[in-house]
Design goal:
The protein is mainly alpha-helical. The chain has a single domain (19-179), classed as Orthogonal Bundle (UraD-like). The protein has helices at residues 19-24, 27-35, 43-48, 56-68, 72-79, 94-102, 111-128, 141-151, 156-179.
Length: 180
């Protein structure tokens, strides 16, 4: 059963409480939760097709595998659901909550780093025509800025490969949070 965290009797359609729930809850409900992990249209269906999963690692591995194999058109749809690094994410959606959690290190960024990220995001979007995507969890603002600057030197094909890997890592972290 899907539950609201901290409220055992309540229901929340975007939080799967455990792997057993992930494996047994109605496909539509679990698909809705999976879409908060990766908004690419075929992602949820392809992960759902593997149910039941024997353990968390199997779900996470499948989610990352699906994310890495998405066609670029679907990757761009998933990117549209991600805020810019350094933006203050508003809203109460599961996607917004995940972004705030993942970018929590940005609260420690000084004004100079924030300004450089704003400028870097603008240059990146002008060059590649999509948001700069990086797994923010576990990285400092300075590390993210250094990666942004490095990746600005990529050619389009190399950058797409990096984006797809970052999307897979973010997706894996979010799916892990969903089923544990």
């Amino acid at each position: 059963m899907l539950r609201r965290p901290g409220n055992p009797g309540g229901w929340h359609p975007l939080t799967v409480a455990a792997l057993d729930d992930f494996n047994s809850d109605p496909a539509g409900t679990v698909a809705e939760a999976l879409r908060t992990c990766n908004a690419a249209p075929r992602f949820a269906a392809e992960v759902l097709a593997g149910r039941p999963y024997p353990d968390t690692e199997a779900v996470v591995a499948r989610a990352e595998q699906v994310a890495r194999a998405l066609p670029w058109g679907e990757v761009t749809l998933a990117l549209a659901a991600h805020p810019r690094i350094g933006d203050r994410v508003a809203g109460a959606s599961a996607e917004a909550e995940a972004s705030r959690r993942e970018q929590s290190a940005m609260s420690d960024a000084d004004a100079e780093v924030r300004a450089a990220l704003v400028e870097g995001n603008r240059a990146y979007e002008d060059r590649f025509e999509h948001v700069f995507l990086i797994r923010a969890a576990g990285r400092s603002p300075e590390e993210m800025l250094a990666e942004l600057r490095r990746r600005l030197g990529n050619d389009v094909e190399s950058e797409r490969a990096e984006v797809m890997e970052q999307l897979a890592q973010i997706t894996g972290l979010r799916v892990r949070g969903l089923v544990t």
